[in-house]
Amino acid sequence: MRNTLLDMRSILSKIFLLSLLLGVAGASIQAGELYPWQLTRDSLLLFEGSTYRYTVDTPENEGLSSTLPSVEALKEQLVHSGSGVYRLFTSAGQEKTEGFPAHGDYLQSTSKKRLLVGVRKGALPPVIKLDRTAFTIKTAGSLTLDFYAGQRSPMTTVTIRVPEGIDVTLDNTTVNVIGRGEVILRDLPKQSIGRTGTNYSYKKVGDVEIRKDGKKGTLLIFKDLDFRPSNGPDIRLCFRGVVIPEKGNYAFEADYITSQPEVLHSPVATATFEGVTTVSDFTRTPLQAFTYKKNWDLSFTSFYWTAPRNAESVTLLLSEDKGRTWKPVRTAILPDDDFAAAGRLNPNQLYAFKLLVKGGDNQGESNIAWFYSGLQDIKTAGVKGDGIADDTETINQAIKEMNELGGGILRFTAGTYNVRTVHLLSNVWLHLDADATIQGLPGGDAPETTWFSDRAYRSGLSPTDPRPYADPENYLTKQDVGHTFFRNAMFFGERIDNVKIVGTGRITGNGNLVTSDKVMNNAPEKRCDKMFSLKLCTNIEIGGWNIDKDMWYDPQKDEPYYIDADGQKIYDVSNMLHIDQGGHFVLLATGTDGIHVHDTYFAKHNTRNARDIYDFMACNDVTVTNIYSRVSSDDIVKPGSDCSLGFTRPARNYMVRNIVGDTNCNLFQIGSETADDIQDLYVDNIYVLGANKAGFSISTNDGGHIKNVYLNSGKTGAIHSRSVMHRTRAPFFISISNRGRVLGANVAPFTFTENGNVRKELLVTNSDIGQVENIVICGVDIDEVYGGSSFRGERWKAYDGSQSTATPIIAGFKLPDTEVVEGGLTFRLPNGQHTGYINNVQFHDVNLLVKGGHPVEDAEAYPPEIGVGRYNVGDLKIQPSFGFWARHVKDFLLDNCSINAEQKDGRYAVVLDDVIGAEIKKLKVKEGITDKENVKALRSKDIDIQK
Length: 947
What we know:
The chain is mainly β. The protein has four helices and 67 strands. It is 5% helix and 43% strand.
């Protein structure tokens, strides 16, 4: 297999160099593969203009820069591109080692080859890439084109010339602009731009015009596209029902025009496919499954293609010697079939397959498809795994080559594999044996270069600091710095599909992944803060072996176990993947759909350097099952939605089951990033060992609508145990604020009086308050209600009065009335709603045992409204109840719940403040635990208390 990989490497290298000469990209566009030149056989043309380009080290407001590379950068990029090592000389023959290239200079390689250098005004060259190099004529099929602009710009115009013979209409072609989602061309002007405040310059994603250009083909002209964000292909076009009329070459062309910081026209990029008579879309079906199978049967594979026309016979051929000799596969194929399978393959063998068509319009041999019938030991690709060598480049090369074979499984056998940043690619699965460890090294990929600067907001949001809002279009300042950058990770994937990282080995950051929000203050080699970073991906799995059993927790052993069919406890958890020292995020998935994470044990080997575990930003169709986190410093499971993609994206459909853990923050948290809607989340069976914020938290702070959240509904499967919460500061924290970290939002400073206290804060003036609706919580037993996480060391420190405590909190948000604001409230929100009510919150069969002991004076406490910079449990100070406290709520239900305290408490059991419609039935409050009435209603109406 190693020789095969080396042969493939040589072939692919030649293809890439040829593509540079033709002005198009190779198999895929990776970071740094957009080069600032057009290269011919004897010249290199550079383009000079300006753009905004910020690294994390660029001072704020100093990002305006020339697009012309320096001499040093040009030579480095030539080496990186595979073009070779060159020296630069002036036209007079004097070598240049610094400064900038000039028109008339020349480059000379080590082999004395010369390239004349030209410099002209213009935008940096774009790249276009087609998903196929050949297309069978007179046969309907689809074709995908990816367009990459050479530089960033708002209000960009792109022109794509489609060759004659390909019919393009508003309804047979789809477009995906910067990863926003696929729509037909007709619907592009109607596509949602996401949630924004009113001060945002874009009202639509863009416009498109189709213009016929005679024999030159068809022009697709896209206008007013926002290319400031960079999320892989800037435009992805899918032409459907394509029928090529005749043989020959079909050339696509594309160029673009920037609008800022200056108007620049780019050169034209080209990409070509060939119209052929033979079958050209013969494709191996990639391995696909929701859950990886431990003993995958790789002795067979299958293929699909467009059925040939009028064929007499179709034969599937295979080769075991890399295409030198061929023999037929024993499988029945009818002439008009479009699918076949090959079985009884030898294990661990590289096979080539193709079709032989006899008779009809498409006779001849098809293109070749490849298949490796086994788990390829990654060491056969030159990876050391000795714990000494840096294996990054050889692992990435092995992933690239497996991807180019159509995908497969790379097996990490016994050893320790040192990596900086692993680049994940579609259809390549990583399998870790039990005695395999992948560990992080310093020096991973740098954070990406961006159009905006992120320096106005890197950590913490002050109630009075307007800088994050100063530019309402700057999406980098709308979330924490960890969410803003993606490439500074141990594993990175962008716009990839069907990837798995599975097994029973260990993945560790090894102390080299950073947890601090001040990560960008570090030296460049210490700026990786994520283990897995996935951006706009689909169909991802990370976990151990699924054994179809529920995981739970034994408090005596302080270990997880599995529940057997007969209810017995199985303490053998060797099926679990082990992860530790994950940095700021073990997994940051943004805009990624179809995620399955499961059967994972966090922090068994090391409890340090771990902050958030799973952060799902703007993700859909997420399944999380059987997760044990011994301890972490931040949220364990966290759905949210932010602006880091340059636009917002709603999220829905979460199935979360059997989550056990200890955290300095929340075990389950929706938010705090809530720039868009988050709906339909089902969580069953949680066991909180400690949480210094909340056990179960729902917070909308940025205008998103959170709807349909269920704890212990049985939607994910049968409820095997009651959920448990120990040592939580607040068992439940369900809240609304109007922090307004969303594109187009404005803030203004106000001074107002609240409950006798003067507050000076920012208020969001043009973005609506978010909503929380339909929250149903059932079957939870809660005790030891204090912030008792073992994050600080001791497991667990008993309550001694020094730890923070809070009650279950359900708190909407209300802007101050104009009469208490100095100068009055000078704005009205777009929808006119200045109070954000939480709607339809239900608690069924919840048993609460708190510490109690508060004095009677605390019954008069009035927690402040939460807002910009104040949206956590601690910002609400003391609550006037020791049981449930609800404010700004509509339709509140307590059903068959009990409230108790270890010490007599001077507060109420339940306080309802500005609650409209409440039903409290079968409430049990321990007799004598308070001298106050059990339920106190303030500024509320329609309250129904039943015994």
